[in-house]
Amino acid sequence: QVQLVESGGGLVQPGSSLRLSCETSGFIFDHYAIGWFRQAPGKEREGVACITITNDEPIYVDSVKGRFSISKDDAKKTVYLEMNTLKPEDTALYYCARGEAYFLTACQTGPDKYDYWGQGTQVTVSS
Questions:
Q1: Counting Cβ atoms within 10 Å, is residue 102 exposed (0-12), middle (13-18) or buried (19+)?
Q2: Percent with pLDDT over 90 in the chain
Q3: Under 8 Å CB-to-CB from 121, ≥6 apart: which residues?
Q4: What pLDDT sits at residue 45?
Q5: What is the per-residue pLDDT across 78-118, written as a single tens digit (0 to 9) for each?
Q6: pLDDT number for residue 104
Q7: Going by C-beta distance under 8 Å and a sequence separation of 6 or more, which residues neighbour residue 72?
Q8: Better pLDDT: 46 or 55
């Protein structure tokens, strides 16, 4: 069974850092793009970052560019999201999701192209 499980969220103050983890199982990990999304109350789901099967040209939403970094460990079948200089606007439920297989352009697609999702981990940035 395909599973994605997020962890690492929490309550932090502005300017601090967190590292989110997405542990996966039930599929050939390095055949798929993996994306991070977030959704705040009353707002639409937003793509945050995405990494392809080749690790080339990861994609970031403009609001996190330079602050967040996505990476993966194929041996551990885990994707990470390093979040630095956190802002209150980063507060949201963060999800990881499985994208398209093989395609190097998989990270250029929208949420509808991601077929499996984790339950999310809450990130709250507040002073």
A1: exposed
A2: 86
A3: 6, 7, 8, 9, 20, 93, 94
A4: 95
A5: 999 999 999 999 999 999 999 998 877 888 888 999 999 99
A6: 75
A7: 34, 51, 55, 78, 79, 80
A8: 46
* Bridge partner list, 11: 124
**Residue 11 — left, alpha, or beta (φ > 0 → left; ψ -120 to 50 → alpha)?**
beta
Contact between 79 and 22 (Cβ < 8 Å): yes
